[in-house]
Each structure stands twice: as structure tokens, then as C-alpha cells.
Amino acid sequence: MNLSPEDLFVDLSYLVASILFIMCLRGLSGPETARRGLYMGEIGMVLAIAGTFFAVGTMQIAATHRLHFTWIIVGVLGGGSIGVAISGWIPMTQMPERIALSHAFGGLASALVGVSEYFHPEEGIGHFKMGALGFEVFLGFLTFNASLVAFGKLQGFITGAPITFKGQNYVNVSLFVVALGALIVLLVYRDEPVPWLPFETKYVFTGLCGAALLIGVMGVLPIGGADMPVVISLNNSYAGLAACATGFALNQKILIISGALDGSSGLLLSRLMSRAMNRSLTNILFGAFGTDISPTAGAPVAMSHNEATVEDAGAVLKASQSVIFVPGYGMAVSQAQHAVRDLAASLGKRGVNVKYAIHPVAGRMPGHMNVLLAEANVPYDELFDLDAINDDFQRTDCVVIVGANDVVNPAAKKEPSSPIFGMPVFNVEQARSVIVLKRSMNAGFSGVENALFFSPNTMMVLGDAKRTLLAMVAELKDGGH
Amino acid sequence: MGNLFVFVLASFVGYQVISRVPPLLHTPLMSGTNAISGISLVGSMVAAGHADELSQILGVVAVTCASVNVFGGFLITDRMLRMFHRQPGKKAP
């Protein structure tokens, strides 16, 4: 092996950066070490970029190439300012949208590099490189569009309900067949002419890109808002794998390593999320929740519920020694996290033991509820996972459910006919009393009725969660005991 | 072949390390790995450094996209992590 000192410097910077990236993820295993880990990641990033600048700089000494150098700096500064602008001011409630957008950017970056490499390779395209490029543009463009659709759904530009039409699965399968066919043709012929095709090979490559873009859109349209945590995790994984493929195509190990880290984190999260819903990934991707399920499944509609006022709920809270809050997507929608904290604080002042039960798929992305409650200044040692808290409900006086539905539905445990049967849920019905804060008695768009809402020890307080919670705080204040 | 080796090893190490991340930190994990995979900036730079115009244009757009993720990703992850704190007066176990 013949290494010039420049190559050695670049390789060394990449090696140290990779180690720092792994240390960064290692730091994330606990909130105490997380920020220190993140600094390591940042140092790693600076090192890797400096190394690359150095590499690009030594490669190109001719005056014309200096121009490109300027453009690279313009891109870095421009993109950097956009990133800082978005991330510095975006409210925490918009976090799922911001994550979806960042996957779109990541996918696009990989895809564009792939396109540029195919049309103007530094050296010829071998079979292996062609395979890497094919995966790169396929995953890159797919992630780009899938993340944009996810962003649109989260933001409300596109309805959060599943969008389905007749023959949808045939269209999707055909698109996959087209993409796979294009990939095979490219693998065999690369950029050389294909004898049996009436057009140039580059159109096969363009076709692959087009199919990937369409699959991205078609794949996410039929997926409902409640399944967004899985979609976001999967996009995370694909964006990482696209970066990985870029690394294979350009023969850059640092890209392979960081792409693999990103890819495996996305894969792990998607598995955790789908396990928390007791559904397979295929079922989520092709099942279109809410369409193949008869909405009559579950409790009959004629059952009556206990509608309670804020005063009633306040009286129950005053008589409680222990309270568990169960937040759901409804808390994010009405931005009630600060009000939840206020209520918990005034309960805490009365000597009540307060905890929060966080379901893995509550909200629209992994960890959504944790971030919102942390923003509202809730200490993280009051937040408990499903397994950690599920046995506590039977010893709890009162459970307050803030905009959660499926994760507290007892049908998941009792009714095999229910579409969510088998999903691990909170044993809230074991608590002495349950207060549910909900906008209306409508079933969510998953269309699954929830027998908990009709149980005799459940009080339904309908209306905007934030206003209800603040009214409860006031009730606790002037109500004495 | 060497690259495949690196890929398998990195995925394995990644999976091992990441499976220790508690659900509490899943969102920072996602934005953090996203920032790290913004390292595709490195690949974009190489493309932007090519001699032909198409590569340069695509490369610069890619550099911009990747930079959004690198700078934005680290910033927002830090913003999130700063919010996590324990109950005042309680010590780490």
C-alpha cells in the first residue's frame, strides 16, 4: 500500500471522526451523558469536513477548480444558515415536521450525488459501483418524496387520514417491478447501450429515479397519521442507507460508517414502534389502517358515558393521593404540555405523588411526548415507560388521560376481533378512577371504539385539553381540600 | 469487499450501541443520527468538485441540503437535550 502523507491525514481524520460518532451515540444512552456525547459528534463532524476540504483542496490546484471550492463554501454556508434558522426557532411541537424535513434533505443530497456520479463518473462505472449508485438514487429519491408527503401530512397540507383508491396495491407493485427491472438492466449494461432497447441507457436510469419518486409518494399516502412514528423511523433508516450506498459508490468509508449508524438506528426504532403496535412492518406499509376494518368492531355505539365537569374532576383529584398522567397526540395538538405540568405541580404541592406514563407510539414520532414534557420543564425521572409503570395503575387513585386513545384501549387486551388486539396498552382501567380529557366523543380516525370511555369509573371531560387543565388548576387552588 | 466488511461491522456496532438508548431520548437519537449522516456532505463536496457543470450544480445543491442537516441537526439535538433535567434535589442513582 502506498499512502501519501495527504491521504494518511484524510484517512486518519475519517477514522477519528468515526470513533467520535460512535462515542456520540454511546453518550445518548443516558440524559446525563447525552450532551457530552453530542459535542464529540460535533468535533467528529468538524474533523471529517476539514479532512475533506483538505482532500478536495490538494486534488485541485488548477485555477478553474478554485471556483468550485468557492461554490462548496457557498453551499455549506447557505445550507448551514438555513439549518440554523429552521432549528433555532422551530417550536418543539413542530419537531416531527422538522425531523421529516431533515430526512427529505438527507435523501435528496444522496440522490443528487448519485445522479451526478452516473452521468459524469470520475472513472468508468463497474458493476459493483453501478449497484451502489442504483441503490443510492432509489433510496435517496424514495426517502425524499416519502418524507415530503409525511411532512405534508403532519403539517396538515395533506389529510392525515389514509388516502386509498381502487387498485392501489397493483399500482405500487407495478412501480416496484419497474424499479427492480430498471435496476437489473443497469446492473448488466451500466452506461453501455442496451441492444434490445429503442432508447439510450440513461433513460433507464432516469426511469429508476422516477419510479423511486413515485413509490415515495404512493407508499406514504395510504398510511394514517397514527402510524407516523413508524414512517418517520423508516425514512430515517432509508436516508442512512442511501448515505451508505453513496459511500460504496464513492469508496468513502466514513460515509459507509455513518450511514450504517443512521440506518441501524432507524431500523431499530421502526422495529420498536411496530412492536409497540403489535403490527408487522408489512402490515403498516400496505395495510392502510382504517380501511379493511369494519368500524363497528368493539363496543356498541349505544353505550352511555359519564360526562363530567371540571368541578367533578377537581373533586376527584383533591381526594387522590397518587395520580398518573397519560399524554397522547391530543396533548401535542392542543399544546397542553405546559398546562399538564401546571396541574402536576399544584397536585405536587398538595403532597400528591405524580407520575407520567409514556407509551412508545404516543404522538407522531419516537419520543415525541418525552420532548414535549421536557420542554414544559417536567423532570425526566417522573416519566415512565410502558413496562416500568404498568403495574402501578392498580395502586393509583386517579389517572388523567390527555388526548390519548388507542394506547389506553382495553380492547387491545380483551377483544380478539379488535384491529388493535395484541397491542401492549396501559392498564389504566385498574386505577380507582379515570379522567379522560378529549375534544369530543368521536372515535379517532382509526375508527376503533374505546370501551374505557364508557366504563362506570371513567369521567369524560370534553373540550380543549389545555383550557380544561388550566381550569382544573384554578379549581385546585381555590377549592381548599 | 473491504467496504462491505466495514458496513457490516458498523451496522453491528451501531445496533449494539443504539439499543441502549432509552425511549426517553429517541427523538434526540433520531435528530442526532440525522446530523451525523449529514456527513454525506463529504460525498457532495466531491461531486461539487468535479469538472463538468451538471455535477457542480447537483453537487452544490447536495452540499446545501447536507449542510442544513449537519448544522440544523446538531443544533436542534442540543436544544432538546438541554431541556431534559431531573427533579431538583435528587441525585443520579
Topology:
The complex is a heterodimer of chains A (481) and B (93).
Chain A: H1 5-27, H2 31-59, H3 63-89, H4 95-119, H5 127-155, H6 168-189, H7 201-220, H8 228-250, H9 253-276, H10 281-287, H11 310-318, E1 322-327, H12 329-333, H13 337-349, E2 353-358, H14 368-375, E3 383-385, H15 386-389, E4 398-402, H16 411-414, E5 433-438, E6 458-462, H17 465-478
Parallel strand pairs in A: 1-2, 1-4, 2-3, 4-5, 5-6
Chain B: H1 2-18, H2 26-37, H3 40-48, H4 53-83
Helix pairs in contact in B: 2-4, 3-4
The string of secondary-structure elements of chain A, in order, is HHHHHHHHHHHEHHEHEHEHEEH
Oligomer: heterodimer
Overall structural class of chain A, as computed from helix and strand content, comes to alpha/beta
**H/E order of the elements of chain B?**
HHHH
- Number of contiguous helices of chain A: 17
Total helical elements of chain B:
4
Could you give the distance between the termini of chain B?
45 Å
What is the rounded Rg of chain A? 26 Å
Explained architecture:
The complex is a heterodimer of chains A (481) and B (93). With 481 residues, chain A is α/β, with parallel strands linked by helices. Chain A folds into three domains: 1-89; 95-292, no CATH class; 310-478, 3-Layer(aba) Sandwich (Rossmann fold). Chain A contains 17 helices and six strands. A six-stranded parallel β-sheet of chain A has the order 3-2-1-4-5-6. In chain A, helix 13 (337-349) runs parallel beside helix 17 (465-478). The longest helix of chain A is centred in the first third of the chain and has 29 residues, at 31-59. By secondary structure, chain B is mainly alpha-helical. Chain B has a domain at 24-83. Chain B is built from four helices and no strands. In chain B, helix 2 (26-37) packs antiparallel against helix 4 (53-83) and helix 3 packs antiparallel against helix 4 (53-83). Chain B is flat, with a radius of gyration of 18 Å. The mean pLDDT of chain B is 88. Chains A and B meet through helix 1, helix 2, helix 3, helix 4 and helix 8 of A and helix 1, helix 2, helix 3 and helix 4 of B.
